[in-house]
Amino acid sequence: xxxxxxxxxxxxxxxxxxxxxxxxxxxxxxxxxxxxxxxxxxxxxxxxxxxxxxxxxxxxxxxxxxxxxxxxxxxxxxxxxxxxxxxxxxxxxxxxxxxxxxxxxxxxxxxxxxxxxxxxxxxxxxxxxxxxxxxxxxxxxxxxxxxxxxxxxxxxxxxxxxxxxxxxxxxxxxxxxxxxxxxxxxxxxxxxxxxxxxxxxxxxxxxxxxxxxxxxxxxxxxxxxxxxxxxxxxxxxxxxxxxxxxxxxxxxxxxxxxxxxxxxxxxxxxxxxxxxxxxxxxxxxxxxxxxxxxxxxxxxxxxxxxxxxxxxxxxxxxxxxxxxxxxxxxxxxxxxxxxxxxxxxxxxxxxxxxxxxxxxxxxxxxxxxxxxxxxxxxxxxxxxxxxxxxxxxxxxxxxxxxxxxxxxxxxxxxxxxxxxxxxxxxxxxxxxxxxxxxxxxxxxxxxxxxxxxxxxxxxxxxxxxxxxxxxxxxxxxxxxxxxxxxxxxxxxxxxxxxxxxxxxxxxxxxxxxxxxxxxxxxxxxxxxxxxxxxxxxxxxxxxxxx
Length: 546
Description:
Layout: H1 2-19, E1 22-26, E2 30-32, E3 37-43, E4 61-75, E5 78-91, E6 95-99, E7 103-104, E8 107-108, E9 112-117, H2 124-128, E10 131-137, E11 141-143, E12 148-156, E13 165-166, E14 174-178, E15 183-189, E16 192-205, E17 209-213, E18 217-223, E19 239-245, E20 249-254, E21 268-269, E22 271-279, E23 285-286, E24 291-300, E25 318-322, E26 326-332, E27 335-348, E28 352-356, E29 359-365, E30 370-376, E31 379-384, H3 411-435, H4 449-461, H5 465-476, H6 483-489, H7 491-504, H8 515-522
Parallel strand pairs: 2-9, 11-20, 21-29, 23-31
Antiparallel strand pairs: 1-3, 3-5, 4-5, 6-9, 7-8, 10-12, 12-16, 13-18, 14-16, 15-16, 17-20, 18-19, 22-24, 24-27, 25-27, 26-27, 28-31, 29-30
Helix pairs in contact: 4-5, 5-7, 6-7, 7-8
């Protein structure tokens, strides 16, 4: 009984939480007096019936149309149903107008704010035409390579067939990018309702001087009412073909300012931010550890492809392995926002304090018309020693015991003694060999050098940095000298080892090619030995030689 009551209580709580989901959104947050906007209400609660209560809109808006759309989607076998109400509104006043919360059952939407600007006083002749086009720039003067937003609006007071077309905007001295898809809404002009097709373009001039935004031509067929042939109900509806052109718009493009640093890349933007992050956070570091530093620059008014590489300097005590930069661009009605993210794997090579220098990015603020700096402060990394990477000190040879003074011997005594010992030793070995059975040859334990070299070759051909490092360590253990000594006397091997280490400690490991490393191993010249001495066996080299 208690279990049933608990389940019922949980179900009621879930229904109550689900009942509160009613979200509101608008297709535009800024419009002119007489224009319309579309308010969308979305509910995921399929247990609620009816329509939202729109009475709260009456004091501030005129409700022109309401449509209900039902959606049913299936994801991973689970069905998800939602209901949308699309409401066409015309504000009754100018300024900042608040769309109040609307109720549907127990659910309530959030309030929204839109800005309504006073209507512009246009030409009466143009407004009387059934179709006309208007074009405007957000600024009349800009800098070279800076963004200018062109807004193109096509007004029509009559219905149009779906064969309308607009010429492409092309400028030989500028780069043009369309900002999203065309938007449609309505606007009341002198008491006449007009449909509006709005398009926006981002224009980036590539030279300074006087430019002209060329005219755009809009072609469409007007629907004529009450002209359908009653005897051909399925025939083509007659109409009138019309063409309208937008005005040419002059644009003044200024060159790069004289006080802008000559050695800095030109960055004109409305806003710029520079941030960094570390993974993991630099705390207790040891030599040979790897950490990733991410630098993200976000620019309002430039595309991601226009952003230059961030300043990079070699840092003593750190090895850098940069990844490919990530470039993105986002479009909105205000223009293009680009970002560039650079990630660098850093590996400390020695103990001590490592100073990471500050990052300073110069850019030009086109809103304030002044030079600005985006700066990341420098920081210090404390790196502790790593005993596993320290080369082992060779053992000191044991001191020879002090020889006792030798007593002089006569030559004939030495010769007699040597002859007797040699005779006895030879006879003893002969007698021992006759009494012992033949000893089979011993079998070598462990892989042969040839097998280890074959393992290394296969790992290099597979371009697998992890397997190559393991095979390389196994092969180096059977060599007369250390891997560090071989790399020190043979430059191709040293360069190949740097490439292998970079692949192991950066995200570019999948692009590593092992052919050069195996060629360097095969071309390694033999070590030069002095006299008859054998080289001392040393430890394997650290992953990052200092």
